[in-house]
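Quick note —
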Amino acid sequence: MKLVEVKLTNFRGYEYETPISIDPLTVIVGRNDSGKSSILDALEIFFNDGAIDHDDCCVRSASTDIRIACVFDELPDSIVIDEQHPTTLGSEHLLKQNGLLEVIKVYDCSSISSKGKLANTYAKAFHPNAPGVDDLLSKKINELRTIAQTRAVDVSGINQTAKAQIRQAIWGSVADLEFVERDISLKKESAKDAFDQIQKYMPIYALFKSDRPSTDQDSEAQDPLKTAIKEAIRRHETTLNTVVDEIKGELARVADRTVDKIREMNDELANQLHPFVKNKNWDTLFSVTLTGDEDIPINKRGSGTRRIILLNFFRAKAEESALNHDGGVIYAIEEPETSQHPDYQIMLLEAFQDLVEQGNCQVLITTHTPTLARRVDRGLLRLIHRVGTVPTVEYGNADATLQKIKSTLGVLPDHDVKAFLGVEGKHDINFLRRISKILAAAEHDIPDLEKEEQAGRLVFMSLGGSNMELWVSTVAGFDRPEFYLTDRDVAPPANPKYQRYIDAWTTRGCMAWATSKKELENYLHPSVLISEAPGYTGTGDDFEDVPMLFAEAIHNTDPDASPWADIAAEKKKDRASSVKKRLNTVCVSRMTPALLGESDPRDDIRTWLRSIRVALND
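Predicted structure written out below.
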């Protein structure tokens, strides 16, 4: 199941129901105390029964009931709620009219002195509302049989021990079920059983807070290692128990001899003594401390290093929890930039993007830094800001919101930026970083773009399909040279796909190019692709689909894989997308200046890089 929306009602600043849509990668921005962390905390309460109390109620409301709702897509095809009889969420009328599942948890926080309690769980569903058939999910089997009999429902052809089948027969006998969208309690009988099954498919939610201590004794660091200790002990349990028995036997013999000696002096005292040998659990005998170079514990390392290590222990723990779970993982990371150099901030974001691309996981980030915000598609941005005292959610795909995001984050602090380089996405950034490094090592007039970026002199902008307007307006006021590079995508005589943007950029005095080939991957030499994926059939044609051909070659090396021709077109497209990182990192790194000369006879790449060098040296 994939989370697509969360709704908060009477939770902290969110007095009235406030929906926040969730993407596979969602970046939440806003000023301090705007309500960003409340979203992540609400999800911790919903998924992990996190602590909630009276103080979490909105101060502007007299109500002490808090509602946290989550809306899900990618639902299980079937669930089993009556013994071994499968049914579906749709046939049980537990879905919204749009086919999504909305689960609402209501918490009673009326007690000032104790924690809030889960009062009820509902599904907001497009459900029958006709009298007498509006509450079938809460009925016991005998009650359902009575309703069927009273209504003269023909149940002769169904299994009358399966509540799901009786419900379907009853609903099917009603001419007008009078469907309305309303809250269906999931607390009793089949409704409760349905929720028990739903929970098995819900994603694991793992929240990494910004104010955690970040030491190697932090629970996220210790728990995975403690689990490893327990697993190792379990594998050697028989041997260890033999050792324990031998030691207990030796200790018992010593204790018995001691009692015998006491008996020689005081028989009454000896009769009161009984040898008892107690041992601790094996896993309590071990502790783990992480050390780095020269055996320095991470507790003594810099805060940024500690935080990165702990973040990855956090990931390890979450992934371990998800191994036997069908619902995937939601990583929620609060301010990942905390204590991090800008280079590491970029590294973290790229790691998060890779996680999302692998599927079965979503990532939610809150951030104050433009370094992260400007590197994602604008449609993934959520701005939380207060209108008066009320938190309001706005979406980055609205132009007015972008201006607010710019003023909230500040696009860039005081800087030494010499130039901006806009490309379509992170894979293009990876390509240009690596190919420029290779060329710069041999050709003095080519800049190493990665070094320039690390020095703060060059800013890459990941434009994406919907980010182009954002960054055009964002950097226009900085009075720095702007360069833009897009894929051509289509062969001449057709204009490049983004010709209208190229025209707008050049009209503003910017330098803008489209590749003369289909996309940047087409500048990779076929020999490099074959060395990485034997069986690659591309010939170096300017407009062949390199990612698709590369994905096919990778697929064909798997002896257990089905024939490539049998794979659905959409699946092929997904696989082509998934190999782009490999193409733009591993394959690009195998290029040489000579190979690029063969695969880029027009000298496109060197021309672009030399133009950028002039601006960087100005």
